[in-house]
Amino acid sequence: MRHTPHYLMTDPDEVRRLIRNNPWATFCSPVDGGVVASHYPVMLDEAASEGDQITIISHFGRPDDELHELGEHQVLVIIAGPHDYVSPSWYAPGDLIPTWNHVTAHLYGTPEVLSAEANYAALGRLTDYFESRQPHGRSLAEDEAGTRRTAQGTAGLRMRVDRFDARAKLSQNKSPEVVENVTAHLGERNPALADEMRRVRGRGA
Asked: Which residues of 87-96 are buried (b: 16+ CB within 10 A; e: fewer)?
C-alpha cells in the first residue's frame, strides 16, 4: 500500500480487531502462471495471537489449494474493513479533491496446510465461531459422518503472520471541523466507517 505515515496502523491489537470484525479475506498467491486470488473466511487463532504475534485459521475449497500452491510460498491475505467515498462537497469551499476512506490490512506469511483431522477440527472451530452469533446456531457435530465427508473437499490452513502492512485512512489530514462533517455524512450511509473515524479521533491520532 502507499506509504503514508500518518495513516499507518502499527498496533497488532488494532489489526486483530480488524480481522475479528471483517473476517471475509482475499488470498493472493504468486504462482508459475502469474497471480491467483481467492476469497475465504478467516478467524484468529486466539491462543497463538498474543503480543506482537498474529495467527489466522482458514480453509480452501479444493482445488484452490493446488492453484495457490498452498504451503509452498508466502501469500498475501487482504483484510478489508469499512470503506467509502468521501466527497469534497463535505469540505470547506475551494477544497475540491475527493478521496476514499478505508481501514485495510495486508498480512504476509506462508500457510501451514493442516492434516485431515486438524482440518476437520479447524472447520468445526470456524463453524462454531460464526454460528455463535446466530440465535439457533448449528454445529458440525450434529452429523459428524456427513460433515467429515464434506470436509474432504477442503484444505485447512493456519498462517502465522510474518509481517503486516496496515492503514487506517480516516481523514486525519483534515481539520477537526471537516472531520466532524465527513463523519456525520458517512454516519448516514456507512455507520461502521463513521465509528472507525470516531475511534481514531478518540485515540488522538
From this structure: eeebbeeeee
Q: What is the pLDDT of residues 142-172, one digit of tens each?
A: 999 999 999 999 999 999 999 999 999 999 9
> Which pTM value belongs to this model?
0.93
CATH superfamily of 5-172: Electron Transport, Fmn-binding Protein; Chain A (2.30.110.10)
Q: How far apart are the first and last CA of the chain?
A: 19
SS3 for 64?
helix
Antiparallel, parallel or unpaired: β 99-109 and 112-113: unpaired
Q: Which 3 state secondary structure label does DSSP give 124?
A: helix
Q: Do the bridges between strand 163-169 and strand 154-160 make them parallel or antiparallel, or are there none, so unpaired?
A: unpaired
- As a whole-number percent, the residues of the chain with pLDDT over 90 amount to 93
With the CA atoms of 76, 82, 86 and 91 taken in that order, what torsion angle do they form, in degrees rounded to the nearest 10? Answer: -120
**What's the sign of the alpha-carbon dihedral 103, 56, 29, 123?**
negative
Q: What average pLDDT does this structure show over 124-133?
A: 95
Give 157's strand partners: 58, 113
Would you tell me how many other CB atoms lie within 10 Å of the CB of residue 98? 12
